[in-house]
Design a protein that fits this description.
The complex is a heterodimer.
Chain A lengths: L1 H12 L7 E4 L8 E6 L9 E7 L7 E7 L21 E6 L1 E2 L2 E2 L6 E8 L4 E3 L3 E3 L11 H23 L8 H16 L3 E4 L8 H20 L3 E5 L2 H17 L11 E3 L4 H15 L3 E5 L5 H11 L3 E6 L5 H7 L2 E4 L2 H10 L2 H34 L2 H11 L4
Parallel strand pairs in A: 11-12, 11-14, 12-13, 14-15, 15-16
Antiparallel strand pairs in A: 1-2, 2-5, 3-4, 3-8, 6-7, 8-9, 8-10
Chain B lengths: L1 H21 L5 H39 L4 H21 L3 E4 L2 E4 H32 L5 H17 L1 H11 L6 H36 L12
Antiparallel strand pairs in B: 1-2
Chain lengths: 398, 224
């Protein structure tokens, strides 16, 4: 009934169709156009908007979207306040295709907006826009600022650590490294060092290769036997350089041999079984699991525990942490993996980064508390939209 | 010295800065650059496989030659490598069809040998979990006791038998087993997980900066 009344009213007084503006969507790869038009008095859930697009002003125009006129208000789009004005006075639609094909950057497209009261859409004037690729995504501005600030803090603390000694909290897993290597030397058994399942493009693997340097140096000093089975040949090549450098630094280049690092296979469970088999046969006195692991974590760590090895794990794979905590003597949890090289070397420049990480964490904790308080207060007092501005600063819009 | 130290450091610096900024650039040129570098990574990975194979065969050949303990396993490696190679070459890429599968001979070996072996190893995980759980859940201290209780409640919420037991023994309590499990997983567990992830994120940025600015050079075999 309502729709009929609206339809008849619009016929009687002349339907004023909304005039959309077509704009290049800012901060995109040049494959989208933004349509914006004002709200109208006849908007109900039964009335629909129809968006059509074409690459020619003469058409033919193809349907891109059809949606109820009570949707697609500007305040429904998840975008930060510095790129997007939120209100319910205007509608928006992001067009990404025209006649079933994705929009192309630099090409002119034509759009028209229709209103459908149930009797077929009535279209307004044709508008056009040229989508263009952009060189910066402003929705990531907060992320960029945080990255620059945190980088500044890291570099500042590195400079400070060179001038003044910084306190390092005790990490039991890293204090046990010396003990583990000493034990292997006394028992005349090998030390196993695993660098995880990922390649060199993973930061956790890079961290594992960095820690390997300190372990290898100590192993060379103690004349302990080191074995590093690999699942990635690139990581193996890097680790060979790392271990060679460590033996040289320890003054034991004669003790180095290329077979310390050896390739097994890139297949997950074949690697696991091969390493498990070696552990059972050679009964290592110490096993280090550093880097990223998947389902093989428990299969490896349980076998290491069963042969009586001191086991130290360090991973940022949060799903595997319970298995390592269960089966290993010490576990470096998450960020401790990245702190290990600084902790073991006590090099001031590296120690400075740890303090910067602590400052970063303090900031994040403060933001979590502030964000929670702001959300709660906003809900209680009914000023969510105002609090939303502050929350936008903390939000990830990527 | 120049080629071994300064050139890799310069490459790490330039590429590090470019790809840190790449995340903020939506332009297709940025995406293309990332795709190209990833393709190069795959190409380098492919060539490095030769290194891997050389290392694998070299170490096993040396064991076989010396008759070192466990040399039989080295023999298995060679039989596996050359057997698979022989099957691939002898079949000349011929397709075998059967039981809903259309495979080459190499595919048949993969499907019927490797996949079965992988399944066998993966299934061992259940036994390893049981032994690890037995060791951990002996409630020797408060943390172990809490872990035991949390794990028991999560297990109850996951299996139908658990729900039955909960309803019989604790049915008078307002929350159901799956609600308790959901709370443990979504509140304390998720909070701890997010805490770890935030720390990891900062650690990754700090490590990346150390490498980009040449503060950490251990990955090149350099002293600090």
């Amino acid at each position: 009934m309502t729709i009929l009344v609206l339809f008849l009213t619009s016929l009687a007084f002349g339907l004023e169709l909304p005039m959309p503006s077509a704009l290049d969507l800012p901060g995109d790869d040049g494959r989208a156009v933004l349509l914006i038009w004002p709200s109208t008095p006849y908007e109900t859930s039964e009335v629909s908007y129809v968006v059509q697009a074409s690459d020619s002003p003469e058409g033919p125009f193809g349907d891109v979207a059809r949606f109820p006129s009570t949707s697609h208000y500007r305040d429904e789009r998840k975008a930060p306040f510095w790129t997007w004005r939120r209100n319910r006075d205007e509608h928006f639609f992001v067009v990404r295709t025209a006649k079933g094909k994705p929009l192309e950057s630099g090409k002119k497209y034509y759009f028209r907006l229709g209103v459908d009261f149930g009797e077929g859409p009535e279209f307004g004037p044709i508008v056009s826009a040229v989508p263009k690729a952009n060189w910066f995504d402003p929705t990531k501005l907060n992320n960029f600022i945080f990255m620059v600030l945190f980088s500044g803090v890291v570099l500042w603390f590195i400079g400070r650590a060179r001038r003044k000694e910084l306190f390092l909290r005790r990490i039991p897993g890293l204090n046990a490294v010396e003990e583990a290597i000493g034990r292997a030397t006394e028992m005349g058994r090998p030390i196993y060092y695993l660098t995880g399942r990922l390649g060199m493009s993973s930061v956790s693997t890079i961290a594992a290769t960095i820690i390997l340097r300190d372990i290898a140096k100590r192993a060379a000093e103690y004349e302990a036997q080191l074995r590093v089975p690999h699942t990635d040949p690139v990581v193996m090549a890097v680790c060979r350089e790392v271990v060679k450098g460590a033996y040289l630094e320890a003054g034991r280049p004669d003790a180095y041999n290329e077979e310390i690092n050896f390739y097994v296979t890139d297949d997950q469970f074949s690697y696991t079984m091969a390493v498990d088999g070696m552990m059972v046969r050679e009964k290592p006195a110490a096993v280090f699991f550093m880097g990223y692991y998947y389902a093989e974590s428990l299969l490896l760590a349980e076998v290491g525990a069963s042969v009586g090895a001191i086991q130290i794990a360090g991973t940022d794979a949060e799903h595997q942490l319970p298995f390592f905590v269960t089966a290993c003597d010490y576990t470096l949890i998450g960020e401790e993996l990245y702190a290990a090289s600084a902790y073991l070397s006590k090099e001031p420049a590296l120690v400075g980064t740890l303090r910067a990480q602590d400052v970063g964490k303090a900031f994040l904790m403060a933001f979590i508390v502030l964000g929670t308080l702001a959300s709660t207060v906003g809900l209680w007092t009914g000023i969510e939209h105002k609090v939303g501005y502050f929350l936008d600063i903390l939000r990830d819009f990527s | 010295m120049f080629l071994r130290q300064y050139v890799p450091m310069a490459i790490a610096f330039v590429m590090g800065i470019i790809f840190a900024l790449q995340y903020y650039v939506p332009h297709p040129a940025s995406e293309k650059l990332l795709t190209t570098v990833n393709d190069w990574l795959i190409v380098v990975g492919g060539f490095s496989m030769v290194l891997g194979l050389a290392s694998l065969m070299g170490s096993h050949w040396s064991k076989l030659r010396k008759g070192a303990p466990g040399w039989g396993y080295s023999l298995v490696v060679f039989v596996g490598i050359f057997g698979t190679l022989a099957v691939g070459i002898a079949s000349r890429g011929k397709i075998f069809a059967g039981e809903g599968l259309v495979l080459t001979a190499l595919g048949w070996v993969y499907e019927n040998v490797l996949v079965s072996l992988q399944g066998t190893v993966f299934s061992l995980l259940a036994f390893f979990m049981a032994s690890a759980a037995f060791r951990t859940f002996r409630a020797r201290n408060l943390e172990a006791a809490l872990l035991l209780i949390a794990a028991f409640l999560v297990m109850l919420g996951h299996v139908p038998l658990g729900e039955y037991i909960w309803d019989r023994l604790l049915g008078f309590l307002p929350p159901k087993a799956d609600e308790v499990m959901g709370w443990i997983m979504n509140v304390p567990n998720m909070a701890a997980k997010r805490g770890i992830l935030l720390g990891v994120g900062l650690g990754v940025i700090a490590t990346s900066l150390k490498i980009i600015f040449g503060i950490e050079r251990a990955y090149m075999g350099e002293g600090r």
